[in-house]
Amino acid sequence: MAPRVAILAAALLAATLPMSAQKGSSANQAYELSAMLSGTWDGSTPGNELKLQIRSTTTDPSHLYDLYVQTSGKYQGENVRLQGLIRLESQGKSVYVGYIPHFDPTITGLSADVARFTDEEASAACGLVVSPKGDGFGGETVGSTCVRAIRGALGKWTIEVDPTMIRIRNVKSGETLRFKKGSK
């Protein structure tokens, strides 16, 4: 009987090891970034009255680190409401961050259709690769790949994420949006 208990204990320990992986190990960078992004973020730069609500969502067993994001509020006096799915996939020490918009405002993180997209939404998807940087992650988009998914996202943008801040900056113009962590 003791060997079965030992095997069960070893299996449970092995299953939880990825969750306790330390930063810098390539084993679970997607989990770490997912945990860092999850929560409520408040715009903190002048004219940025946006709120990001990022929550884990279950889509299927092969995508463990999918996040539903809703952006609402005002940016430079203009009303903004965007929602979509962020899909995180580990790539060694880096993480691929894909964003697929939902143009239908009735889709939420709890909707059965959260991982189903129209052809228009799928073709508007964009992504980038982020790597460990300081206490978080950083990366850069490739050109205007996100312009259809995120209104006004022309050109290259850098993105930096750490446990307390998200910074999105247009490489050419220097336009910067900062968000401070609110609550989980």
In the sheet with the most strands, the strands line up as: 1-2-3-4-5-6-7-8-9-10
Structural class based on helices, strands and sheet pairing? alpha+beta
Shape: globular
Number of helices: 3
Question: What is the element layout, followed by pairings?
Answer:
Layout: H1 2-16, H2 29-37, E1 39-43, E2 48-56, E3 66-75, E4 78-91, E5 94-102, H3 119-124, E6 126-133, E7 136-140, E8 157-162, E9 165-170, E10 176-181
Antiparallel strand pairs: 1-2, 1-10, 2-3, 3-4, 4-5, 5-6, 6-7, 7-8, 8-9, 9-10
Write up what this structure looks like:
The chain is an alpha+beta fold and 184 residues long. It has one domain: Lipocalin. The chain has helices at 2-16, 29-37, 119-124; strands at 39-43, 48-56, 66-75, 78-91, 94-102, 126-133, 136-140, 157-162, 165-170, 176-181. Strand 8 and strand 9 (165-170) form a beta hairpin. The longest helix is centred in the first third of the chain and has 15 residues, at 2-16. It starts with a helix and ends with a strand. Mean pLDDT is 81; it is low at 1-24.
